[in-house]
Design goal:
Layout (H helix, E strand, L loop, with lengths): L1 E8 L13 E7 L14 E5 L19 E9 L2 E8 L16
Length: 102
């Protein structure tokens, strides 16, 4: 899919994420559902942007329009958390980033 939107978390509420801030949470538009049910709507999923080894991706690397693929983090038997990692595929259209924080 493609990153449709994102937010940089700078203050983690969950204790398990305190050491990971800042990190990106992405809203990904899935290729399989693009344009369904209408041209302006699609199935979108929220997840963390992670590196291939499962650590949080550098917030400077995230941008709207970048291509990603899903990876699953096993948390327990029969329970996995979908996450996303950057793909080598070229972006479709314009790529946009939030301005850097001062």
């Amino acid at each position: 899919g493609s990153i449709y939107s994102y937010e940089t978390v700078v203050h983690a509420i969950q204790p398990g994420f305190m050491d990971a801030v800042p990190f990106a949470v992405v809203l990904v538009e899935l290729d399989e559902q693009r344009g369904r049910p209408t041209a302006d709507e699609a199935l979108r999923i929220i997840g963390n942007l992670v590196t291939p080894d499962g650590s949080m991706e550098d917030e400077a690397r995230v941008a709207v329009g970048l291509r990603v693929h899903v990876v699953f983090q096993d948390l327990a038997d029969h329970f996995a958390l979908p996450q996303f990692t950057l793909s080598d595929e070229p972006a479709e259209g314009r790529v946009w980033r939030l301005p850097e924080r001062s």
